[in-house]
Amino acid sequence: MGSFLEEFGAKELWQAHDRIWNHALSYIRSMCLKCARELGIEDIIHSHGKPITLSQVETALRIPPARSACFRQLIRLLVHLEYFSQISDVGGRRGWGWGWGGAGAVVGDDGHGDRRGLSTA
């Protein structure tokens, strides 16, 4: 019996690696969502009433400058996971909006204006 690569091929090897990494790191998705809920990011964006810049969200949350890069990484992942959507119409600057369609709508609002936490979602 040969190696995995000889027996199955490169495509299967990459698929196996992908599956293992996805499984091993899947907790990051839920932890990022939990962090966003605990910080109240969607409440700030929702209460703003229109697209808001990332700097405005950082100011409202009082994110220290030393943590700004980490906060921006969190937001990028949440955009990738489609909880937030990126909007490029905030006074000519790039802004952020809560992703009311798809996953953001389910987590952020029950459809009747009730802002629910993860424990009741």
TrEMBL record:
GO molecular function, one term: protein dimerization activity
Classification via InterPro entries: COMT_dimerisation, WH-like_DNA-bd_sf, WH_DNA-bd_sf
Residue span, O-methyltransferase dimerisation domain: 21-91
Segments passing through the bilayer: none
A Pfam family the protein falls into: Dimerisation
Name this protein carries in UniProt: O-methyltransferase dimerisation domain-containing protein
Gene source species: Musa balbisiana (Banana)
